[in-house]
Specification:
It comes from Salinimicrobium profundisediminis. Pfam families: NAD_binding_10. InterPro entries: NAD(P)-bd_dom, NAD(P)-bd_dom_sf. The protein is an alpha/beta fold. The protein is built from 6 helices and 11 strands. The strands form 2 sheets. The chain has a 9-stranded mixed β-sheet, sandwiched between helices. Strands 7-9 form a two-stranded parallel ribbon. Helix 2 links the parallel strand 2 and strand 3. It is globular, with a radius of gyration of 16 Å.
C-alpha cells in the first residue's frame, strides 16, 4: 500500500481527499498538519499525520516513508500577496524540493485555471502568478508530476462528470468532490503522467475522461 502525503489536509478539498483515501485498498493517506491541535481531527479518523509548516519548516523529514504527494494547500484568491507568496509559491517550492530529496514517485499539484495567463485576471493576478511559479518549479524538478488546474471550486455535491483538456476554452466551475477524485485518480502511474490539464464540470465520467486525456484523444 502506497503512502500518500496530503499537503493542505485540513482544507476543504484536502479533507475530501483524506476521506476517500481512507477507504482505499491501494493508498494510505498521511495528513500534513501545521498545528498540534489539528492532530485530533485525523486521530479520530485513524489517519496517520505528520507535522510540517510550509511557511517555516525544513520539510525533508515529512517525506520519510512517503511514496507520493498531493499538494492541495492554498491561501485562496482573496488572500493578500504576502501570504499567497509564502504558501502558494515559496511553500509549494519547498515541499517540491523535499519530495525530490525524498525520491517520491509522483507529485500531484492542485493549481488553478488561469495560471498560464495571470495577467488576464487582474483581481487574481498575484495568486495566479504564485501558482504559475510553483507549477513551473514542479515541471522543472525532474519528478513525475501531474498539475491539475480546475475552474472555480464549489461546495456542490460532486457529479462524477467532468470536461478535461490541456487547455479549455473559457471558464467554468467544478465541485470540490470531483476535484478530489481527479487528484486521487492522478495517483495511478500511467494516468496524466507529466501532464498539466484543466478541469470543469462536464458530461463525461471522470475515469474515462482521464484515460482519454492521457492517451491524447
Amino acid at each position: 500500500m502506497e503512502k500518500i502525503l496530503i499537503v493542505g489536509a485540513t482544507g476543504s478539498t484536502g479533507k475530501r481527499i483524506i476521506e476517500i483515501l481512507n477507504n482505499s485498498q491501494s493508498f494510505e493517506p498521511v495528513a500534513m498538519i501545521r498545528k498540534e491541535e489539528q492532530k485530533s481531527i485525523f486521530e479520530d479518523m485513524e489517519v496517520q499525520w505528520v507535522h510540517g509548516d510550509l511557511e517555516q519548516d525544513d520539510l525533508d523529514p515529512v517525506m520519510k516513508g512517503i511514496d507520493k504527494v498531493i499538494f492541495a494547500a492554498g491561501s485562496g484568491g482573496d488572500t493578500g500577496p504576502e501570504k499567497t507568496t509564502e504558501v502558494d509559491e515559496e511553500g509549494a517550492i519547498k515541499i517540491i524540493d523535499a519530495a525530490k530529496n525524498g525520491k517520491v514517485k509522483k507529485f500531484i499539484m492542485l493549481s488553478s485555471m488561469g495560471a498560464d495567463e495571470p495577467s488576464k485576471h487582474p483581481k487574481l493576478e498575484h495568486y495566479l502568478n504564485a501558482k504559475a511559479t510553483a507549477d513551473k518549479h514542479l515541471r522543472d524538478s525532474g519528478l513525475n508530476y501531474t498539475i491539475l488546474r480546475p475552474g472555480a471550486l464549489t461546495d456542490d455535491l460532486g457529479t462524477g462528470k467532468v470536461e478535461l483538456a490541456q487547455k479549455l476554452d473559457g471558464q467554468g466551475e467544478i465541485p470540490r468532490d470531483d476535484v478530489a477524485f481527479l487528484l486521487i485518480m492522478s495517483l495511478a502511474d500511467p494516468l496524466v503522467k507529466n501532464m498539466t490539464f484543466e478541469a470543469i464540470e462536464g458530461k463525461e465520467p471522470i475515469k474515462s475522461a482521464m484515460i482519454e486525456l492521457s492517451q491524447g484523444n
